[in-house]
Target: DUF1326 domain-containing protein
Amino acid sequence: MADQWLFKSETYDNCNCAMNCGCQFNLPSTHGYCQSAFVGTIVEGYFNDTPLSGLNWAALYKWPGEIKDGNGRRQIIIDERADEAQRIALEAIISGDACQPLSNLFAVFASTCSEFCGTLFLPIDLDADLELRTARVEIQDVMRSTGRPKINEFTGQPFHIALARPSGSFEFTYAEIGLGTTSVTGDMEMAFEDSWAHFCVHHFNQDGLVGERSRLTAWLGPTPR
Model:
């Protein structure tokens, strides 16, 4: 019997692209190469009989060109609070090895990577607010990042942008959009400033994305009869 699992994470992602990240709009990347850092907290999760809720995780990626062209590098970081069973479970999920082929972002990105750095087990200090589009991340000796909303140049107030994928994707159905600044040292050295960031819920199981209606439907009100 295949592994049965659930991974529901409130996730902050910052990449090196400008505000119109090509991954989300089927466009080329801003600079001709891709670098990205995902960090999240599992709000609901399990792997068979192993509970995962409350644990933090990170996945760092670098590609020398467009993601589709491959030759990427990946490193997984798992909350040091995880016990042995939880570490094995999270590594299986985030590596993309425990799901249907190409059914979520972990599996898709793994298929484009040729180098896999050793998994790290470290304290992951994450404070993120998906509604406010803010984040602060510190992984000692590896990563620092801050996320913020884009500011309206006319009013000085946060500029609210959201991206809805009503039929879903291999990543999310809805994301809040902002800006992020990230620096990474070690095996995945990279840095980008005031670039694309999104705040979303990654909701996956062994079969792929767990479909949920986008919050866009709430803005539209009830469906006319």
Notes: The radius of gyration is 17 Å. The first strand starts at residue 5 and ends at 15.
